[in-house]
């Protein structure tokens, strides 16, 4: 199982990036979001999701774990294949995809090539609870100062959504520091994702 590939980018084409790992070039299918963060002959690291079939072995590379998690959630929805998942993430990136699901924004999803209204509705229906469900058990650390955070339903929802994308409670707690406690769930997610991108 490949977890990630790391090395210089030797080929960069629409939908494709080749990473040289010790003399072996790994061809990875990528979204426009990931491609925009890559530069030829510059070292990078892509998180890998493998697709193994009888007649094909494809690697899907993502610049962040967040985008990889979104891709895996999308392809778990009946009727959404790798091509549609990549198109959705290419058209809006993982942040806008998350917001589209949580706010029921079909237009953002149907803006992706090959994604119709029925598929968009199914994605929202199946993933809304997974991404923004408040049923998830939250583990805030940091002592008494964390108590007010638990009482704010928007922060709880934002934290649940970020946990579903693969971030730990500790990472989320740090990323939400300084956020407006009265902000909407969507704005809180934006704040946290922006903080995590800046961090690393």
List its salient traits:
200 residues, OB fold (Dihydrolipoamide Acetyltransferase, E2P), Helicase, Ruva Protein, domain 3, 48% helix, globular
Task: Assign the CATH topology of the largest domain.
Answer: DNA polymerase, domain 1
What's the SSE pattern? EEEHEEHHHHHHHH
| Amino- and carboxy-terminal Cα gap | 25 Å
For the residues shown, what is the average pLDDT? 84
Report the strand count. 5
Spans of at least 5 consecutive residues whose pLDDT stays below 50 are 133-151
User: What fraction of the residues are assigned to beta strands by DSSP?
Assistant: 15-25%
Largest beta-sheet characterization: 5 strands, antiparallel
CATH class of the largest domain: Mainly Alpha
What does this structure look like?
This protein has 200 residues and is of the alpha+beta class. It has a five-stranded antiparallel β-sheet with strand order 3-2-1-4-5, covered by helices on one side. It has three domains: 4-62, OB fold (Dihydrolipoamide Acetyltransferase, E2P); 66-131, Orthogonal Bundle (DNA polymerase, domain 1), CATH 1.10.150.20; 143-199, Helicase, Ruva Protein, domain 3. The chain has helices at 32-35, 65-75, 82-103, 106-110, 117-132, 147-151, 153-164, 169-175, 185-199, and strands spanning 4-13, 16-21, 24-29, 43-52, 57-62. It is built from nine helices and five strands. The radius of gyration is 18 Å and the shape is globular.
